[in-house]
């Protein structure tokens, strides 16, 4: 069973002892982020009394891979494939009237003051101020009426003003068209959406694919959407909060610095600007904040990237078994790929495919399918015992990579691949993993060993 709203998933986490309710008053400046980070990857958290606001704040709702699978109603091993299917076969959304849209229970179009209305935290030491970090920015392509959804960092710079970082992807493409015509680009920012819509917003798809239709496919039922009050944009009707506005043409204002996913700061520079035209919310909204570089942030980026990477590798190596974007690599820079090698050289083919999949991918480790790619110790063991640098290393110098990787020269850097697959002609006993007969079938309770083990499941 999938969880079809933000609050249904939040409630499920509470019922299964995975949500910490913080009842004491907390400051939005650093304190919310500190507590969420303390619980990162283990528990979600809800702050009932953020100082200066009557709206509670929740964070860490999808901070484990298996939670995301559970929220979508699938097994953890199927998660990447469920995401691929949804990208390949999107499903239309369902339009509902304003009366059926909880997010329009309260609407404000005048006297807007974002920081008075919403509990927007400041997360890291050198952040330029409060940032909306879990806002799905939705815009429409006037040519096709298709929408695009992406999460952009949003700095609150005035009562009804936000700075927005638009990287050279779909939102920026649509903005440039509007700006060339001298028009603003209308947008809506949805905060507090269901887990499927949240992760669908991170899909790596061609231009023209509506991420809300991917959300419908992930949910296996159409996502209810409603037309905004002041802009021609459709938003998830069951979102907690929606901010409507316009990205202004020919206006750029300072934004940043901001602590980003690689655990470094993105710099201050002139960025695009959103002028807010309305703020809508449920009668009892919950504000969602994503602590940058936390597991929630990393996994939301990582799983859609894994879906895309799997597909690219499969084109070259049909026997690819699984791919993992590791948290240590910020779920962007490091890929571990398990293959069942049938032809010599396929380990290096998988490395080349990974480099081709995304310029962000910097280091690739390819292993045989007996290695648990979700366990860093197992991966290191494969590097230690199945890899020889003179024979198994792929190095590509001076390519374009991530500009947020501070070891690059404005993105210019090198790629490395480690082929840790066992040679097909090797003596099998040389690479026979030691095992203890019966270990997997022991009845541990006979020995009083009833504690559960961490790690491999
Ligand atoms: Mn898109």
Architecture per CATH nomenclature, i.e. the level-2 architecture of the largest domain: Roll
**Computed structural class:** alpha+beta
* Rg from Cα: 23 Å
Look up the CATH topology of the largest domain: Pnp Oxidase, Chain A
Under CATH at level 1, the class of the largest domain stands as: Mainly Beta
Bound molecules: manganese (II) ion
Roughly what fraction of the amino acids lie in strands?
A: 25-35%
Figure out the total of helices.
12
* Number of extended strands: 24
Taken together, the total number of domains comes to: 2
Question: Biggest β-sheet, characterized?
Answer: 10 strands, antiparallel
Name the shape in a single word: globular
Spans of at least 5 consecutive residues with low confidence: none
* Superfamily (CATH H level) name of the largest domain: Electron Transport, Fmn-binding Protein, Chain A
Instruction: Give the helix proportion (percent range).
Output: 25-40%
Mean pLDDT: 97
Spatial separation of the terminal alpha carbons: 22 Å
Topology:
Elements: H1 6-15, E1 19-26, H2 31-38, E2 44-50, E3 57-59, H3 65-72, H4 79-88, E4 94-95, E5 106-108, H5 114-117, E6 131-132, E7 135-140, E8 147-151, E9 154-158, E10 161-164, H6 170-180, E11 185-191, H7 195-200, H8 211-219, E12 224-227, E13 234-236, E14 241-247, E15 253-255, E16 258-259, E17 265-266, E18 269-281, E19 287-288, H9 295-316, E20 320-325, E21 334-339, H10 346-357, E22 363-368, H11 376-386, H12 389-392, E23 393-400, E24 412-419
Parallel strand pairs: 1-2, 3-19, 4-12, 21-22, 22-24
Antiparallel strand pairs: 2-3, 5-18, 6-9, 7-8, 7-11, 9-10, 10-18, 11-14, 12-13, 14-18, 15-18, 16-17, 20-21, 23-24
Helix pairs in contact: 4-8, 4-9, 9-10
The structure holds manganese (II) ion.
């Amino acid at each position: 069973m999938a969880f079809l709203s933000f609050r249904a998933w939040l409630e499920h986490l509470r019922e299964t002892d995975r949500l910490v309710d913080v009842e004491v008053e907390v400051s939005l400046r650093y304190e919310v982020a500190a507590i969420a980070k303390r619980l990162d990857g283990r528990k979600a958290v809800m702050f009932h009394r953020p100082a200066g606001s009557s709206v509670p704040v929740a964070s860490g709702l999808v901070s484990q891979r298996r939670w995301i699978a559970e929220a979508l109603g699938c097994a953890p091993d199927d998660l990447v494939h469920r995401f691929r299917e949804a990208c390949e076969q999107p499903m239309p959304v369902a339009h509902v009237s304003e009366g059926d849209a909880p997010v329009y229970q309260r609407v404000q179009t005048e006297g807007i003051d974002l920081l008075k209305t919403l509990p927007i935290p400041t997360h890291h030491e050198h952040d330029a101020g409060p940032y909306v970090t879990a806002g799905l920015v939705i815009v429409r392509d006037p040519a096709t009426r298709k929408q695009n959804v992406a999460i952009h960092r949003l700095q609150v710079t005035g009562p009804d003003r936000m700075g927005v970082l638009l990287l050279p992807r779909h939102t920026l493409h649509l903005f440039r068209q509007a700006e060339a015509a001298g028009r603003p680009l209308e947008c809506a920012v949805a905060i507090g959406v269901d887990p499927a819509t949240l992760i669908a917003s991170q899909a790596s798809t061609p231009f023209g694919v509506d991420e809300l239709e991917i959300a419908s496919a992930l949910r296996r039922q159409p996502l209810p959407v409603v037309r905004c009050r002041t802009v021609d944009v459709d938003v998830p009707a069951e979102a907690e909060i929606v901010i409507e506005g316009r990205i202004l043409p020919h206006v750029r204002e300072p934004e940043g610095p901001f602590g980003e996913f690689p655990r470094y700061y993105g710099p201050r520079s002139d960025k695009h600007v959103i002028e807010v035209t309305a703020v809508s919310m449920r009668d009892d909204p919950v504000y969602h904040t994503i602590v940058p570089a936390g597991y929630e942030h990393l996994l939301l980026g990582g799983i859609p990237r894994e879906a895309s990477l799997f597909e690219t590798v499969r084109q070259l190596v049909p026997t690819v078994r699984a791919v993992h974007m590791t948290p240590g690599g910020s779920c962007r820079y490091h890929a571990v790929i398990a293959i069942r090698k049938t032809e010599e050289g396929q380990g290096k083919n998988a490395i080349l495919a990974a480099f081709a999949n995304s310029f962000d991918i910097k280091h690739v480790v390819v292993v045989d399918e007996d290695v648990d790619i979700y366990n860093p110790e197992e991966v290191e063991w494969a590097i230690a015992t199945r890899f020889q640098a003179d024979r198994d290393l792929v190095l590509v110098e001076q390519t374009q990579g991530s500009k947020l990787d501070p070891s690059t020269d404005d993105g210019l850097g090198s790629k490395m691949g480690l082929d840790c697959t066992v040679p097909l002609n090797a003596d099998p006993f040389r690479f026979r993993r030691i095992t203890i007969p019966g270990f997997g079938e022991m009845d541990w309770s006979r020995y009083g060993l009833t504690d559960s083990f961490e790690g491999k499941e």
